[in-house]
Amino acid sequence: MKKMIKVLSAAVLLGTMAGCTDAVAKFEQADEVLMKVGNITVTKGQMYNTLLAQSGADVVRNQGLKVIGDIEVEETEELRAAAQIDFDYYNALYGGTMTDTLAQSGMTPESYMEVLIDGKQSDALIRKYIEENLDSYIEKLQPIMATVLSFNTEEDANAAMSALADGSKTLDDILAEGKTTSEGTTEVITINTTDYGTTVNTVLRGMKPDDGWTVITSAEKANVYVARVDDNDPQNFRQVLIDELDGQDEINDDALSYYFKKYNFHIYDKNVLDIVTNTYPEIVVQ
Question: Global pTM?
Fold first, then answer.
């Protein structure tokens, strides 16, 4: 229910900041008592500062993404259907009591659906950025598709290599023996991949699909690897590469920086700016 809390916080924070004309937000009746517990009172100003500290960065980021997403990403039936799937999942998770659960946070099923749709728009926004900038990432990351089998001993690796090379065993046969911890599926490997160490990465980059399987001993890892390059032309696996890049923190930060800069995102409140800078520096582009 964190998203629900963020939506409620947004209403409070954005409402109080609407008339900000100074370096920090000011609003009328900041000293007005909002509630009292025993002899302790809490004012509207104190509540604002608490919400700012707890949710301010999230609210600013999410509201910025909402504005940008509405411009860049069309709200299609497919997008709404994906949001509905998430809603149905949460509804089932709460035993069909979603309406009551939402009401406790001051929301309705309709308003929460809008939160989910905003999330889907944000996801689509990142994916759009990757698709539009894929060629530059191909040049930067030099991706290949490869299958890498990891073995604990050189003996096991050499035995697997020999059987694969002479055709006496298939990949499925090797996997069934249980001597490799790998799943045996082809995967995207870039110059930033660290799972197998620099040696494996370097050797694979010098190979072609026609080279077949080879044994690679890693200088950094204790394992011995049997590997092959399945495809070294990224144009053949563009969609797979997009899926791989989608969700990576560095790519996500690149996308957010691009879009927030594109739309001249600017924070006028010093306190809010400091909080957002500490939490989401990638969107601070002023």
Answer: 0.80
